[in-house]
Amino acid sequence: MKILAVDDEPLFLDVLNAALQQRGYQATTVTSGSDALNALDSSDAPFDCFLFDIQMPVMDGIELTRRVRARAEYRRTPITMITRVTERLDIEDAFGAGATDYITKPLDRLEFGTRLRLIEQLVEQNQLLAKAKDESKSRAEPNTKPMHDFDEPRLFSEVGGMIDFLALENYVLTLTRSEIIGCSALGISIENITSIYQRASAKVFEAVLQNVATVILDQLKRQHFLFSHVGGGDFVCLLSRFDELDAAELEVDLQCEMDEFEAKYAEKGLPVPSLHVGEQISKSMFSFGSSSSLLIRAIQSAQSHDKSSILSWNRRAVG
Fold this sequence. Notes:
Distance between the termini: 25 Å
CATH class of the largest domain: Alpha Beta
Number of strands: 10
Strand order of the largest sheet: 2-1-3-4-5
Oligomer: single chain
Mean pLDDT: 85
CATH superfamily of the largest domain: Reverse transcriptase/Diguanylate cyclase domain
Shape: globular
Number of helices: 14
Number of domains: 2
C-alpha cells in the first residue's frame, strides 16, 4: 500500500512512520501541502491512501484535501485527517472537503491500528472496483453500462457540500451522542431511476445524477448540510434537526426545478427524474441503534414509493 503522509511537525512524522513500519508499511513523508502536491506529480504510481494534518501553515490539510480530490485519479482514495483539533466545525469542514476519516494526536496505537485496517479495506475495495470496471469495459459494447454501476455511489466534487457516502457514514460515526441528537437526515429518491438507467447511455446517466445533485444543493443551500449519493437513484442529506423542513413543500420545489430541464431530457428520449422526499429523521435521547441507522432510516423513508429502489438498497445493506 503506497502511502503519503503530510505534517508540518517532522517529529510526529517520525512517530507516524514508526507506527506504519510496525505494520509493514513505509510512507512517503513531506512537511507541507505544496510538497505533497509535488509528490503527487512526481510519483511513478498513484498513492493508495493519504494521511493529512489539518493545521498546517500556508496550505492546511483541508485545502490540500480539496486539491487532491480535484484530481480524477484520487476521487475515491482514502484520506485520513490527523490532528490535535477536536472542534466539530474543523472536522466537518474536513469531511466536506472530501476526507474519509480522522484520528487525533497524540497518536493512539490501538486506534491507529483500527483506522489503518479500515484504510486497507477501502484500498482493497477500490482496487476490486477498478478491476471490475476494466473487465466490464473490455467485454461491453461502447457506451453500455455494467449492472454494478447502477448501485455504485457517485461523487461529484464540483457540487458543493457533496461528499462520498462512505465519508458521510464515517462522519456520523464520529459524532457524540449529544451531537447525533442535534442532527437529522433526509432522503431523496428518484422514483423512475430504473427507467432512466435503462434508456440512458453511461455518460448521460452520470449527467442525470449530477443534475439531481445540483438541484438538491440549490434547494438546500440555505441550510448547513452535507449530502451524498448512496447508489441507484438515492441521495441522503445530513443537517441540523433544528432546520425543520416541510418534506412535501421541498419535494414540490425540487420537482419544479427539475421540470425546467424537461426539453433537454426529451431530446435524449428520457423522462424528467421524478423526485420523492422522505420524512426528516432524527434520533431522540432514548433511541437505540447505531448512529448510521439515522442515514439508513432516511433512505428507506425516501424509497417508500419506489419498491425497485428498496430492493436495490436492501441488497447493498445485506452485502
